[in-house]
Amino acid sequence: MKGFKEFLWRGNVVELAVAVVIGTAFGPVVDAFVKGVLNPLIGAFGSKNLDSYASCIKGPCTIASGEVTKGVAILWGSVIGAAITFTLTAAAVYFVVVLPLNAYNRRKEQVGEPVLSEADLLTDIRDLLAAQRR
């Protein structure tokens, strides 16, 4: 989770571009997961549709199809639904694209200098000893 948090707060342009492209592709999948799995789980404790959760601040309020038709209301349920969708999309992008890319870059950095053969090492030692004799 630490790496996931760093990904969300780091301003790397390449990762942002990848997140936009992959996020767009994952959007419908995540929406289907939220509507098909998470909303029914939340619906076990209340309404299945998160858009129906609202607080009336100037009433009386009438809400139809997720829109306020009378009064002034805060539609906090739709904000929670959007936050869940965003979090799942960001997690999918992180675990499918960013985490493997970071692992690849770490392996690439560890490779470093090529390993010298015994003959190359002996040649270097011979050259160093010859330089010391002079």
List keywords for this structure.
134 residues, alpha+beta, two-stranded antiparallel sheet, 4 helices, 13% strand
Average pLDDT, all residues: 78
Write the element-wise H/E pattern from the N-terminal end onward. Answer: HHEEHH
Percent of residues in beta strands? 5-15%
The total count of helices amounts to: 4
| Overall outline | rod-shaped
Q: How much is the radius of gyration in Å?
A: 28 Å
Number of strands: 2
Structure description:
- With 134 residues, the chain is of the alpha+beta class.
- The chain has four helices and two strands.
- It has helices at residues 2-9, 13-43, 76-111, 118-133, and strands at residues 55-64, 67-74.
- Strands 1-2 form a two-stranded antiparallel ribbon.
- The longest helix has 36 residues, at 76-111.
Strand and helix map with partners:
Elements: H1 2-9, H2 13-43, E1 55-64, E2 67-74, H3 76-111, H4 118-133
Antiparallel strand pairs: 1-2
Task: State the gist of this model.
The chain has 134 residues and is α+β, with helices and mostly antiparallel strands. 68% of the residues lie in helices and 13% in strands.
